[in-house]
Structures are given as structure tokens and as C-alpha cells.
Amino acid sequence: MTERTLPEIHISALSVAWLGALLFALLPATSHASGWTGTLKGGGQVNVDPETNRATVTRKGVQSQLWDGVHRLDDGSYIIVNSGQVIPNQAILDARTPAQPRDIEAWEGTRIEGYSPCERLVHRVCGFTLACVGQPACEPALQLLEMENGERAASPDPNLMTFTSNQCRQADTDKGFFTSCPQPHGDSVPQARQP
Questions:
Q1: Number of domains in the chain
Q2: How many Å apart are CA 195 and CA 190, to the nearest integer?
Q3: What is the pTM of this model?
Q4: What domain range is 193 assigned to?
Q5: Residue 21 within any structural domain of the chain
Q6: Is the domain of 10 the same as that of 40?
Q7: Are residues 123 and 137 in the same domain?
Q8: Residue 80: CB partners within 8 Å, gap ≥ 6?
Q9: How confident is the model over 52-105, as pLDDT tens digits?
């Protein structure tokens, strides 16, 4: 067995300490880089923790949990909060992955044939007759339908897909949160709720 001399032990311990300090310094930067922030339309900075998806909002220096529901951001997009956690949208996912060049989306300029994407989402999640209105995902689906109807009404061509129409298309693929209503379909079509 080879004995170590005091200078070798000192250098080895110094190297370990330096490496540990470097890793500790880089850890918060790595975690922060994958986080996401946005500004609510009515004011307030939203922060989404990258590890837990917990959403908090800071208004006038006071931070609090963001309540469940659909929240419109100042850029016109929205986030959905369920049980205090954000369901990651494309902007949040993009913040967690390296930037890619944006191609024109296939849905842009597409005419809506029959039911709109948000109407289809509400039909699937809440039921045609709103039989599953108490289901947790029904309220966010109805809020999205209301936002889509507002965008379509303000558009020069209300028969074209809107930003929220595409968000509903994406939400319709999330069968984990937007679960289907088990009730049979009726004849009525749900409309956006009046404020």
C-alpha cells in the first residue's frame, strides 16, 4: 500500500472542493434556465417552477399561488392551471428546450368546417348537453370556448381558426387532463357562457 504525502492530500482535497463549488454554482443556473415566466393580461408576473409545474403570480411584490382555471397572458396566449399546476403549453415547452426556427403552422388560415376545435373539445369533455359540467376539465374547456368565440367574433373572417382554436386542438390531445365525458351525447350544442 502506498502512503500519501501531506501535499498530495491537500491538492486532492482542494480539487474536490473546487469541483463541488463549480457544480453548486452551475446548478441554480441550470434549473433557472428551464423555468418559464409570463405576464398576466390584468397584471402580475407568472412564474412556473420547471420541476413541479407549480404556478405562482407576483403582484406589487406579493407572491401567491395562481388559482385553477384558464389565465390569459398579455401576449394573447393563455395558461391552464389545474390543482395549482400549469398544464405546459407550447411556450412553456419551448422555454425548456433549445429554440427551433418557427415554421408556419399548418392550422394558420384554415377554415373551420362544422364544429370549431373548442366546440369539439367541450363536446368531448363536458358532453353535448353539458352532462359532465362538474368534471374538473370542463370549466377550462368552457373558458377556452368562450375565448375562441370572442376571437372569432372580433376577426374579419370568423370562419378561420384563431389562436385559441389551435390551443383547443392541442388540448384535445391531452387525454390525461381533458378526459372524455362518459355520458351519451344529446342534441344541443354548448355555447360560450355569458360573463
A1: 3
A2: 15
A3: 0.50
A4: 109-195
A5: yes
A6: no
A7: yes
A8: 69, 70, 71, 86, 87, 89, 140, 171, 177
A9: 878 889 999 888 888 888 888 888 888 888 888 888 777 777 776 655 554 456
